[in-house]
């Protein structure tokens, strides 16, 4: 599966970054039996937050979707770090929890989340099909537009 994941990442023009270190008092992931839980990942690209602000308050839906995709890339980077680089250990992505910085009248958080969901299904195939929550919040760390955490089943 790593060849498949690696091939799919390359076809998407994506090289996984080095997994980000925690920015506060937490760990970037937790392995527990056959589960891998990542901490929330921001839309970091090139060492900085790629999309800031609020959806419905100046950030376009397409930019929110791009932010969600960056978050998904960083989720895979954390999974790779947790699994010693062996993404073949991923059995299934079980759930994404997507936090979208939103103005009070913005109601398309689910469409923002598709930026991550579509990417992860493209890269992981059927193992990337997952349950999901998409929640609007008033603010996120570093003014990020999106933050996403993931729960995987691993072998």
TrEMBL record:
Pfam families: YjgF_endoribonc. Residues 7-145 form the Endoribonuclease L-PSP/chorismate mutase-like domain. This is Endoribonuclease L-PSP/chorismate mutase-like domain-containing protein. It comes from Aureimonas glaciei.
